[in-house]
Design brief:
The complex is a heterodimer.
Chain A lengths: L1 H24 L18 E5 L3 H16 L5 E5 L2 H13 L6 E5 L2 H8 L7 H4 L6 H6 L9 E6 L2 E6 H7 L7 H13 L3 E3 L9 H23 L8 H13 L12 H9 L3 E7 L14 E4 L11 E3 L2 E6 L6 H12 L1 H11 L5 E2 L10 H11 L3 E3 L2 H4 L2 H15 L5 H18 L1
Parallel strand pairs in A: 1-2, 1-3, 6-7, 9-12
Antiparallel strand pairs in A: 3-10, 4-10, 4-11, 5-7, 5-8
Helix pairs in contact in A: 2-13, 9-10, 9-16, 16-17
Chain B lengths: L6 H9 L4 H28 L2 E2 L7 E2 L3 H8 L1 H31 L7 H9 L6 H12 L4 H8 L16 H26 L3 H9 L4 H12 L1 H17 L2 H6 L11 H10 L4 H32 L1
Antiparallel strand pairs in B: 1-2
Helix pairs in contact in B: 2-14, 4-8, 4-11, 5-8, 6-8, 8-11, 11-14, 13-14
Chain lengths: 427, 303
Amino acid sequence: MTFRKRRFTLGTGLLAAVSLSLTGCLGTGGSPVTPPAEDADGPLSLQSRLADGDEAALQTVVDTFNSQGGGQVELNTVNNETFRAQLPSYLTSSNPPDVYTYYGGANLRDLADEGLLLDISDVWKDAPFSDGLRALSQDSSGNEVFVPTSYYWLGVYYKKSVWEASGAEVPTTWDEFLVANKALEANGVVPIGIGVSDAPWLASAWFDYLNLRVNGPQFHIDLLAGEDSFDSPEVEAVFDKWDEIQPYFDTSASGLSFPQAVTDFTQGRTGMFLAGSWLQFNLPAEELDDYDYFQFPIIDDSVPLGEEAPTDGFMASARTDQPNLAKEFLAYLASPEAQKVMYEANGSGTLIPANPNTETDLAPAASKGQAILEKADGLTQFFNRDSSDALQSTADQALTQYLVKSKATPLILSEWQAEAEKVRAAE
Amino acid sequence: MTVHSPPAKSDRRRGIATPPVVFALVLVPFLVETVGVFYPAFQGVLLSFVKWNGLSAAEPIGLANYVQLTTDAVFIGALRNTAIWMVLFGGFSFLGGLAIALLFQAERRGVGIYRTVVFLPMVFSLVVTALIWNAVYQPTGILNETLRALGLDSWTRLWLGDPNTALYAIIVAALWRQIGYVMVLFLAGLKAIDPTLMEAARVDGASVWQRFRYVTLPQLRSVNLVVISILVIEALRSFDIVYAMTNGGPFRSSELLSTYMYSTAFTGRQLGYSSAIAVVIFVLALGVIISYLVRAFSESKED
């Protein structure tokens, strides 16, 4: 008995000691770092998550920078998922990669507010970027930590031949959109294609756009920032609209993988697909001419027009031992010359250079996207980019449940809000 | 040990000090283990007592993570799914592997082909297995099309998209790959049984069932130990096939402890909380295996 008791006190003592010493042996973040004035020797390391055409474009622009003789940059590409999981370890390690591919918005701001990113306000002094892009590139106190290089658009993609056969017309308003859905359905085509078994986040594109159209961009940003709730009357209004088109969604969506859903779309079994410009990489190259996209239909003219324009670019670690070279490289990436090199090396015409002075001929799809985005009153990024990956996961649960109508919508929304609160409390 | 060795030898051995090379041989792997296994494991346990997002400083919160586990519906669901997984995946692998091994143990002509066919799925990685079965389970995949062709339209399902079937669909895919492996282990065990034992039983007039129950099974005891340990560990560390097929979905219905741990750590950035889940997995694995080993050894002592 006494033995046991002693072991117990020993246990609690140990626990207390462990708890006390934890802050010492774990968690290296939080402490501000002053970058050295002089650069260390050696090449600058660039950690990238880009693949395919984007990777080739990045390699080309790195080669161009290296050939200018100022400093050398070494590109290291890892798989996107690895990059996402490892980023905190990279940024908090004592000898991190110097420069990273990343995206503008809330996630970037969170990293910057932890003091993990290099302040590059001096690079931004004479930068010609729009105020919107500048806001995306800042931490909470208004210092720039990111250079945007390109952004892309989201659109409702459709196959012209399928629409012609069904007599469906490209819609601009919600009513026209409903008419088009009916026409497709009458012709035996499932109007709206989507596959969420492996890519549940695709459903968020629909939520984002419906919320932008019903409540406007400011509400959307506030909602994702936690200043409003997912069970509010505004969000319920979003789902009331969604209810009008929910029957047009592919009923097998929850068991369908993204590649399978795209195959259904390209083979004309489904009529449209809401996605980013990257969808083009999944369409058959030889019949690209048969595909086009339209702007997400306008629901209410009086609501400020919001569009999604996910912005990609680069940031540097606050712990880099070559801050000067890092800034030099980031300044180069921000330049019209570098963005022209990247746009042309990518070759797909699915992105828009962020620097407005970039002199390049945009592909028709890209100039159409640019025209849509220029008319917008407010730009958003995408659900996860405007909030966090953790909040994205709560949206995935809620929206996939909604799509199969597994529960009453108010219940789904109140559970969503509860999950979102839990996630925010854990942050 | 000394009982069986000749006395002269044991006397001689007593006089010699253990050569330093022995210490080196023990010490080096021990250090590697310490750095690579023990220390990170210890750190993992420590992490389960903090709240940490991987970026800012960790905040000690005592047992709060474990308290939160008890009310977390997703965790409880994952725990239940892991138990279902262990029973069904472990049980069917064991019984299926044993049954097929018994079927294919006799050296008949062409039996090698059958053994190879059953073992073949094992050469695929779990991710490839997931890809194959994903195609089978697609809404217009082989399974649903076959059912339709047989006129069983009402049996068709969104196998991976229906919260009632997703977990079981994945278990079938995992079994498809595992049974061949367990069969090979049992075949090796069956081969090691002295044929004269069987011969004697047959001469004594034992029925097929009696020979299986009183000769084969007891002789397989050491193999059972290996198979069960492997299956328990495999069941608790099952991750890749679920991750690749449903990622725990739809709406978390096929979440296992391992996939939930991963998503809380790398999507939710709750490293402390996910470490608490990891500790639970560790305790479960250790608990199941130790209790089995203790039972197995105490049984063999009675013999």
